[in-house]
Amino acid sequence: MTFSTSPAFPGNRSLAPVLLCALAFAACGGSEASRETTPVPSSAVPSSSEPQPSLRGRIEHGELSSNFVEVGAYEDSLWVRDRDGARWVFGEEHIFPDLADFGSAGDVWIERGENVAEVQTDPPVRAGNAQSPVALAYRGGPFWVAGSELYFGEQTVTRDPALAGTRALLRAGGSLYLGGTSGLFRLSLSGIGEEGSRVEQTLETGEPVIDLARDDLGLLLVLVESGNILRVLPDGTTSTLPLRADAMAFANGHLLVVKDDAYSVYRYAELLGETRPDSGRVGPFEHEGVALTGCEYWPSRDASLPNYPEDILWGFYPREGETFDGAVNPGSASEAAIACMEESHAALRSWIETHGALLRELAGLRPEYYSARFYLWVDDYSQTNDAFSEEMRPAQMWYWKRDPDVLGRIPGYWKWETQVTRDGACIVPDSQAAEELVRTALEEARAGNSENAQK
Question: Which domains does the chain have, with CATH numbers?
């Protein structure tokens, strides 16, 4: 996210929820895939003097004042703000303390002042000035850049000449992506502080990168100064979206762009002319501070259990060759597993609506250990044969703790583990057992012991 250059209205241009900003992988905490440096062919980039085309997929359009400030995403919704005020332009209208003065990213609020962004943690963290790009971590403060230094809250975590000129930051899983003067750079969060860790260029653009986002397939969207939006494909090459923008945000399969004091919202797949699963599919969600942020499939086949990580499928509707959060899926989920995932998704949503307050209290008591974030886990035994003799994992809720801790990353995830039996039946975690697990963990947290929720 980047800050506006208007001194009266500094602020971040892309406010995303932890869903959507703390996606992590499975039992070992995420992919660290990086990209080779790939020049963008000049023939692939339309001239900035060409008129903005009339595009398919546009569902919303409106005018802005000439003093445009920022766009943002929150949960499954999009909003725009200029000096005349802020308004929701897609999805649900959420109630912020004051949308004109605050933005939200997961568990923290950003209050924008004359010269700084103050992150409302305890205690508050002041992050840079109005021109500093900021990427929010789960707890403890934001990442931000000043000069050639990267900060986490008020702590300097690395120095690198490549950081100079950074105008956009995006945290995705275990990586921090930086938009620099000549391209896209990446820093592995797990490597911060280690000798030899450094910022690596992953995409050469030949012009400044001014904003970053991720689409519904986990692919990076890179907005460059000329207004072109580059989509970084799984092989590291890029395609160029058929429109230009001054700012962008992405939520729930929809792209919001601002260009020449007007905003437009597009159905992303329709804009690209791509095929997606039907619109009834499920995905990440957040309810009163408790969120489901991702999904993983563990497909057993024939007589064998899956190998980690090469056989694991990522995302809610994984398809072979598609990317989720930096990892390319080695195959597609079975129909039985997809159906069970949707059933389990509904059961988890219902459970969170009823028991979310317990998780929030637990995470508040032990924020260094517990989170209020879920990952949905599907054990698929529907593709095994009679020779399969391995022990099947039960449907259960349990807690995975990251070890060792990684600066700025979530301390762990609740796993909502679901089983697809050999005959295709779906078994979801028992609601009462899940409640008992959390209540026991809550008692232990009060007593200073937080080990027994782990599996």
Answer: 18-272 (2.120.10.30), 285-446 (no CATH)
Q: Which helix (H) or strand (E) holds 82?
A: strand 77-82
Burial of 280 (0-12, 13-18, 19+ CB in 10 A): exposed
Structural contact between residues 294 and 23, judged by C-beta atoms closer than 8 angstroms: yes
Q: Whole-angstrom Cα distance, residue 44 to residue 238?
A: 9
DSSP single-letter state for residue 42: G
SS3 74: strand
CA distance 222 to 55: 19
pLDDT for res 419: 98
Q: Token pair of 133, please?
A: 């790009």
**Residue in this structure with the two tokens 């059933």, named with its chain if needed:** 343
Residue 116 has a pLDDT of 38
Contact 223, 229 (CB under 8 A): yes
The dihedrals phi and psi of 372, each to the nearest 5 degrees, come to -115, 45
Residue 443 neighbours by CB distance under 10 Å: 12
Whether the full predicted model's pTM is greater than 0.90, yes or no, is no
Mean pLDDT by 10 residues, the chain (455 residues): 27 29 32 33 38 70 81 78 78 55 36 40 41 57 78 79 86 83 87 67 92 85 96 88 93 90 92 71 82 93 95 91 76 96 96 94 90 95 96 97 81 96 97 97 81 54
Question: Residue 252 and residue 214: Cα distance in Å, rounded?
Answer: 11
DSSP 8-state assignment for residue 52: P
Instruction: Give me 234's structure tokens.
Output: 């799984």
DSSP line for 128-140: --TT--EEE-SSS
pLDDT for the residue 13? 30
Does residue 265 contact residue 78 with C-beta atoms inside 8 Å? yes
367: its two tokens: 């924020």
